[in-house]
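Can't paste images in this forum, so I'm doing it all in text. The chain is below; anyone willing to post the predicted structure tokens underneath?
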Amino acid sequence: MKPGEKGGGGVVADGEATSCCSADGDDKRSKKTAAGRFQRDLVAGAIIGGVVHTVVSPIERAKLLLQTQESNAAILGLTGHARKPRFRGMVDCIVRTVREEGFLSLWRGNGTSVLRYYPSVALNFSLKDLYKGMLRIGDTPSGSGLMSAATANFLAGAAAGCTTLFLIYP
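Text version of the structure:
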């Protein structure tokens, strides 16, 4: 664009574009954008957490059955019925659970698990991006920001985890 021509952001004077908005307007817009990104990340984290816990729920259920089989009344023979054999491993546990209780029993307790974990996953997901943005202030394409991307990512994850634990577990 040549000096004196009108562009999308304002009139170009001496080769530099001027903004049609004041600095206050840009500041308010960036705050709205940051708040919008945080809310979007919060919702995305909650959805991701729910999906992940639902996907791994059968493995989690089998793990709990294996861990508690020493106190399981059916395995110990305390129910008045024939004593059930101990589980021989993860696959045996899943196969027997499906055969005896049905396929959907692998997801028993999943709703409670999702409700328990989704606030922490959502906060972790959104806070990490927020902290990473704070740590990378002044970053330029040449990489001359406050710190490297890997360091900022690590510190942002650590800070997000600490903040989440502080907020979730009083």
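Strands lie at 12-13, 16-17. The radius of gyration is 27 Å.
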